[in-house]
Design brief:
The complex is a heterodimer of chains A (about 140) and B (about 800). By secondary structure, chain A is of the alpha+beta class. Chain A has four helices and six strands, in the order αβαββαβββα. Classes of the chains: A alpha+beta (about 140), B mainly alpha (about 800). Chain A: Belongs to the RRM NCBP2 family.
Chain lengths: ~140, ~800
């Protein structure tokens, strides 16, 4: 039934500000994408753990770990690409907002991975959000 | 905790709103266009939400009845301009099972004021019901049959017209050629609708009702149920008998009949409006005739009723309806329906479950948990993704933090206690769920309570469950984490540290023939050497002459290359994938036979024997990149090397994922061929569209490819079946001549071992029944002799009756 179950997979308000292309192009890609951005990961969470959790929603094509631009170490996000849109939707439905390494992780549609996006965009090399974070977060140090 | 949903909702209205983000978003959407709301949107919202007192936008007073009445009046005003739209929305609403009586009340009220509109609506409903029947959408058919059954109670439909439909359905049970799954479905439709209208039928059409029930009785008594053991979650009926779903429902209906068709679970808002229906026009629902039998149709598979709780398991203040009371059926049925309607939104689903309208002091949380596990353990496959059930249970724990975790812990203990009799694949699902659940609760569990099983044998069910669960926990976290949370009493169950085991750097390396080349390869890999250079370094391991100018690749070459490459890429999946991709062409050059593929798999296992997830993922990668084939993987699983791992769950994860890949490929090609064939037929008719014309040759090529692949698929199934026959017969013969564990190290051939392995065989047959059943006769000819053990003849007897 069309009326139900669309909330969990709808596109959030976040838009990649560095997207090269028009807004409508971005919207189109987001609505067809098989790729998800995964945020609020611990710096210590490994690709293996992500694979274990995310393959429970479907067949994972690849995982691209987000890295600190300078240190080349994980900095708390990744991209997960599925083979099909349906599997990616199931991930949005059942994994978004659940825990991995004791952290509530967030998944969001991504227009598709482009080389270079695996690096944090903060001044320090990590993610911008960690530069604004005031409280201590042992999983992201 | 209040047990009347409506009161509860009324008091908690404010709180729920902040929690139900799903609802709020829908409400926002409702007003999203800058405050302008179209009439259609308004109608849609009022109709979908009717009877939901927590809806901010609802109309009418603080009772369900007044809300329904207000909605009916609103709709009546719009009929003149929006008749079609209203009917369309109502047809969708009629498929919301948990609100069925609300919609029948609404229709009753509409009918009392505007019978012509309802006549139209009934015609549309009949059309839509016929469509669902023709499209084999059986759950929709089932719900709509129940809906029209309830429309007798609101004086919309004449009882006779609904009885006529029942009669047509019952008539099928006399057809000789009809498979049981088909007649089962229609009998189920009737039996599961009668609780709604049994009383009125009994009062007004007693003899007709009796005749239908007599027919069903003789049908129920004569059904074959050979398949039943295959679908049971537990191998014994103690403490809960696992009944066939129709048998159980039949007993429940008989009890309802004994009780003069009075039940106490269904909330019927229409009772308050009886006076309004007094002068209503009764309509005859158009006669619905089940479509002719079509062998292509996939009917719902038979089921077993899953029960894990009885009244002694629940707190005293609640009364769990007995397993044969109609109330137990009604609550379970509604819970199943809610899960199946809202499974796409776990938050909404959880909310709807805990708000199920109740009239009795029923332990709702226990019943919700029982229904969710019933679906999770359903054989051959659960209706939805396993992780859906896991995430739904997490939501329920969030909504009821003081109740749900306690019920779940109790359920886990019960399942663990009964694990000895639980089917292997259900133990696996249980373990997968439990590890996932714990990973959301910091792995907090009273582990020490389970310490007794640490001393059991490795094949003992509890021991195995616990070890497999810890492996899964490690896959979701990391080794040290497991070490940290596991008490000393069960330390022996902690999985090995998942490090690579690379023999060419070990103490024994100096004595190994392959070490010099292995060292050289590792250097080359580190220097990012091109594949050609790596290949020439491999030449130092000489191949042998196979005669006739043929060269046989040296197994050592394959072993050294695979092991060293995987060791080089051992840092993460990405490193391993990159290494495999970069040197893929070398695999293509040296891995040229099934024998060499087996060496690749063995080398992979040698390096990663302590990291099972890595094996699963890498075997899958090698399959996708065509380094190894499905049939080789199957042979490897049954090979000598895997003997000690044979009952580990990861091995079967590999097996099933390889088979699924094969099946998916066949299905993909089949669709491609089908599309091509349709295009071909069309282009034959309209010759002017030369552009995308399909030649006969193209079509034939596709068919040949499809048939070749189907042959491979069949070969794969036969390899697996042959090997299962071999390993299981081996055990059975030893049992027969009473040689028990005579050979040293043969401890794995125990009754427990037999259970793990035979369950895997049954699961393989059942899970892939759609693909395997067509070959049933061939399988029997090939594998059955006059000496075949009774175990196999029994199994295949059950299997053949599965879809009869």
């Amino acid at each position: 039934m069309a009326y139900f179950g669309q909330n969990a997979i709808s596109i959030s308000a976040y838009r990649d500000q560095k997207f090269k292309g028009t807004r409508s192009e971005q919207e189109r890609l987001l609505s067809q994408s098989n790729t998800l951005y995964v945020g609020n990961l611990s710096f210590y969470t490994t690709e293996e753990q992500i694979h274990e959790l995310f393959s429970r929603a479907g067949d994972v094509k690849r995982i691209i770990m987000g890295l600190d631009r300078n240190k080349k170490t994980p900095c708390g996000f990744c991209f997960v690409e599925y083979y099909t849109r349906a599997d990616a939707e199931n991930c949005m439905r059942y994994i978004n907002g659940t825990r991995l390494d004791d952290r509530l992780i967030r998944t969001d549609w991504d227009a598709g991975f482009i080389e270079g996006r695996q690096y944090g965009r903060g001044k320090s090399g990590g993610q911008v959000r960690d530069e604004y974070r005031k409280e201590f977060d042992p999983g992201r140090q | 905790m209040s047990h009347n949903r409506y009161n509860q909702n009324f008091y908690n209205r404010k709180r729920r709103h902040t929690e139900e983000s799903g609802h709020d978003e829908e409400n926002k959407r409702f007003r999203s266009d800058g405050g302008h709301v179209s009439l259609e949107e308004e109608l849609e919202t009022y109709l979908y939400r009717v009877g939901e007192l927590n809806d901010k936008n609802r109309i009418g007073g603080y009772s369900v009845e007044s809300n329904i009445e207000a909605t009916a009046n609103f709709v009546l005003d719009q009929i003149s301009q929006k008749q079609k739209e209203i009917i369309d929305i109502l047809l969708e609403c009629a498929r919301l099972p948990e609100k069925l009586t609300i919609y029948s009340t609404l229709l009753g009220l509409l009918n009392s004021k505007n019978p012509d509109f309802v006549e139209e609506a009934m015609d549309s409903l009949a059309t839509s019901l016929r469509n669902y029947l023709n499209q084999a959408q059986f759950s929709a058919v089932h719900i709509l049959i129940r809906f029209i059954s309830d429309l007798i109670n609101v004086k919309v439909l004449s009882p006779k017209s609904v009885l006529n439909i029942y009669e047509k359905m019952v008539d099928l049970t006399h057809e000789q050629s009809s498979p049981q799954v088909r007649t089962d479905f229609y009998v189920y439709c009737i039996l599961s609708s009668i609780p709604w209208n049994g009383r009125i039928l009994y009062e007004q059409h007693g003899p007709e009702l009796d005749e239908i029930l007599d027919n069903i009785k003789s049908y129920i008594e004569n059904r074959t149920k050979d398949h039943l053991p295959l679908l049971k979650v537990w191998s014994i009926d103690d403490p809960h008998p696992q009944e066939d779903y129709l048998d159980c429902l039949w007993i429940q209906i008989k009890k309802l009949e004994e009780n003069d068709w009075k039940e106490s679970q269904i909330i019927r808002p229409y009772v308050s409006f009886e006076a309004s229906f007094k002068n209503s026009t009764l309509h005859d629902f158009p006669l619905i005739i089940p479509p002719e039998y079509n062998p292509q149709t996939l009917y719902p598979l038979p089921r077993v009723v899953f029960r894990m709780f009885d009244y002694t398991d629940v707190p005293e203040e609640f009364i769990l309806p007995g397993c044969h009371s109609i109330e137990r059926f009604l609550v379970e049925e509604q819970l199943h329906s809610v899960v199946n309607t809202y499974y796409l939104d776990r938050k909404q689903c959880a909310n709807r479950l805990i708000q199920l309208p109740l009239t009795n002091r029923i332990p709702l949380n226990y019943m919700i948990v029982e229904v969710i596990f019933a679906q999770l353990f359903s054989l051959p496959r659960p209706a939805h993704l396993e992780i859906f059930y896991g995430s739904l249970l997490l939501e329920l724990c969030k909504l009821q933090p003081n109740y749900m975790p306690i019920v779940l812990a109790q359920a886990t203990e019960l399942l663990f206690e009964r694990i000895e009799n639980m089917k292997t694949v259900c133990v696996e699902r249980f373990s997968n769920w439990f590890s996932y659940h714990l990973s959301n609760f910091q792995f907090k569990w009273s582990w020490d309570d389970w310490k007794d099983c640490a001393n059991e044998s490795l094949e003992a069910p509890k021991n195995k469950f616990l070890r497999e669960t810890l492996i899964r926990c490690m896959r979701l976290s990391y080794h040290q984490r497991i070490v940290d949370f596991i008490p000393e009493s069960i330390n022996s169950l902690v999985p090995e540290n998942p490090k690579p085991a690379y023999k060419y750097v070990s103490d024994e390396a100096a004595d190994l023939e392959g070490t010099p080349v292995a060292n050289r390869l590792l250097e080359l890999f580190k220097e990012r050497a091109i594949p050609e250079d790596v290949f020439s370094a491999l030449r130092d391991i000489p191949d042998s002459d196979a005669g006739g100018g043929e060269v046989e690749i040296n197994p050592l070459k394959i072993e050294v290359f695979t092991a060293t490459l995987l060791f080089f890429g051992s840092k993460s999946f990405s490193h391993a994938f990159a290494a495999l991709a970069k040197y893929h062409m070398i695999f293509k050059m040296i891995v040229d036979s099934e024998k060499s593929q087996l060496i690749v798999l063995q080398s992979l296992h040698d390096v990663w024997k302590n990291h099972r997830q890595m094996i699963v993922v890498l075997v899958d990668k090698m399959l996708k990149t065509q380094i190894v084939e499905c049939s080789t993987i199957a042979k490897w699983v049954f090979s000598e090397q895997m003997r000690n791992d044979f009952t580990f769950f990861y091995v079967w994860e590999i097996m099933h994922s390889s088979i699924n890949r094969m099946n998916k490929q066949v299905e993909k090609l089949r669709l491609e061929y089908q599309n091509l064939n349709e295009k071909y037929k069309k282009s034959d008719l309209a010759s002017e569209s030369v552009q995308d014309e399909i030649t006969e040759e193209e079509l034939e090529d596709k068919l040949t490819t499809l048939n070749t692949l189907k042959e491979q698929q069949k070969k794969l199934f036969f390899i697996i079946i042959e090997n299962f026959f071999a390993v299981l017969s081996d055990y059975l013969i030893k049992v027969e001549i009473k040689i028990e564990n005579v050979e040293q190290g043969e401890t794995f051939k125990s009754p427990n071992w037999f259970k793990w392995v035979s369950d895997r065989f049954e699961d393989f047959l059942l899970t892939h029944n759609e693909e395997i059943l067509p070959y049933l006769n061939e399988i029997k000819t090939q594998f059955f002799t006059s000496n075949t053990n009774k175990y196999f003849t029994n199994l295949f007897k059950m299997y053949s009756s599965f879809k009869e």
